[in-house]
Design brief:
Rossmann fold; binds NADPH dihydro-nicotinamide-adenine-dinucleotide phosphate; 11 strands; 3 domains; 4-stranded mixed β-sheet; alpha/beta; 384 residues; 16 helices
């Protein structure tokens, strides 16, 4: 029995993780569930899965959750400190980090610091502070198992391989605007951007997919997870989203992992690794696979991808600046305060304005995140 904490259980990944738990009652036990402010769903999940504790980050919702669960043997905590600390509990074997954005950093960091295995969906954690995260994982013998489908694909391809990787190919669907012209891009709305052609996900990552910022973040994520140089990571647009990513080995052989667009597969693999558990989920049909296309991404049309490479090459606190500016810009776009094509401009301007720190400490990352958000907010205000 693996005892798991699901951080962000009310989100897209969290809900699918609980579906995986439901189909493996002999192997998985839920110890902790957390949400930001969706008290209703958190309470419902708690009643169904009977965890040892739940955490609601929004302290104003504490009494609602506490009163609703008063009849159950479930501890209720609130606030971001509780969220960061709960992962240290000795009855947790694995933490699924599925909070969206920078907010997931403290809990993921603490989980690794206390030697827990982490199933990592929250890619922003590695974008912001990849060096500290990987160092902390190594020092505490805490494995990180990727949940992001591309990184899970690479991780699966590397099982049984001993030699170094020559390069990896991260595949990208290209998002809803793959075939848009620049002029068409200027007119897209939030509703257009939220219609992803192949995956159903939370709002923030869906917008990141539309701008290809998500693929840029995944490049940085891959650098840290697989200890790669930037030139070893190539992005290929693959609109069918069937080949989830590929690894090229030193003899020229290329291994790929294929599957349906269903996050339950990488979530289940992260829970079961090094085993594989049976799944009754629908299988990939070769009838859906008559055509597999691969092409280079257009970084002029999607500058966010180029900005991610730039941030990765500069290193230090620059990826943290990029992530903070992106969170602010995406929020502004979702609130109709920013047009889609201005997103990369906000990111580039914030990266230019923020001061550079070559070897940031944890506190430097905290301060960079705060300051970059302030700068990005100002830039958006000035644009309006
Ligand atoms: P969602 O927006 O659907 O869910 C986010 C979860 O995080 C919710 O439980 C939310 O709680 C919680 N949360 C949000 N803000 C905070 C906060 N400040 N403090 C504490 N909890 C918070 O996101 P996704 O599930 O789509 O994505 C989660 C992570 O997984 C992201 O990093 C994403 O990039 C990554 N990922 C997602 C994929 C997908 O298919 N969805 C695929 C690959 C990676 P509440 O519901 O109360 O707001």
């Amino acid at each position: 029995m693996k005892r798991i904490a699901i951080l962000g259980s009310t989100g897209s990944i969290g809900i699918q993780a609980l579906e995986v738990v439901r189909s493996h009652p002999e192997q998985l036990e839920v110890i902790c569930l957390t949400a930001n402010s969706n008290a209703e769903l958190l309470m419902e999940q708690a009643k169904t899965f009977n965890p040892d504790c739940v955490v609601i980050a929004d302290e104003e919702k504490y009494t609602i959750v506490r009163d609703a669960l008063a009849q159950y043997p479930i501890k209720v905590y609130a606030g971001s400190d509780a969220l960061a600390q709960v992962v240290e509990q000795s009855n947790i074997d694995m933490v699924l980090a599925a909070i969206v954005g920078y907010a997931g950093l403290p809990s993921t960091f603490n989980a690794l610091k206390s030697g827990k295995a982490v199933a990592l969906a929250n890619k922003e954690t590695l974008v912001v502070a990849g060096d500290l995260i990987i160092k902390t994982a190594r020092e505490n013998n805490a494995p990180i198992i990727p949940v992001d489908s591309e990184h899970s694909a690479i991780f699966q391809c590397l099982v049984g391989e001993y030699g170094p990787v020559e390069k990896i190919y991260l595949t990208a669907s290209g998002g809803p605007f793959l075939n848009h012209t620049q002029n068409q891009l200027r007119l897209v709305t939030k509703d257009d951007a939220l219609k992803h052609p192949s995956w159903v996900m939370g709002e923030k990552i869906t917008i990141d997919c539309a701008s290809m910022m998500n693929k840029g973040f995944e490049v940085i994520e891959a650098k840290w997870l697989f200890d790669l140089k930037p030139e070893q990571i190539e992005v290929l647009v693959h609109p069918q989203s069937i080949v989830h990513s590929m690894v090229q080995l030193k003899d020229g052989s290329i291994k790929a992992q294929l599957g349906r667009t269903d996050m339950k597969l990488p979530i289940r693999y992260a829970f079961s690794f090094p085993e594989r558990w049976e799944s009754g989920d629908k299988r990939l049909s070769f009838d859906d696979m008559r055509l597999l296309e691969f092409r280079q991404p257009d970084t002029e049309k999607f500058p966010c991808l180029a900005l991610a490479y730039e941030a990765m090459n500069k290193g230090g606190n620059v990826p943290c600046i990029l992530n903070a500016a992106n969170e602010i810009a995406v929020e502004a776009f979702l609130n109709n305060r920013l047009v889609f094509t201005m997103l990369p401009k906000v990111l580039a301007a914030t990266m230019e304005k923020h001061h550079f720190i070559a070897n940031p400490t944890f506190d430097d990352y905290l301060n960079t995140n705060k300051e970059a958000r302030r700068i990005a907010t100002e830039i958006i205000r000035a644009m309006a």
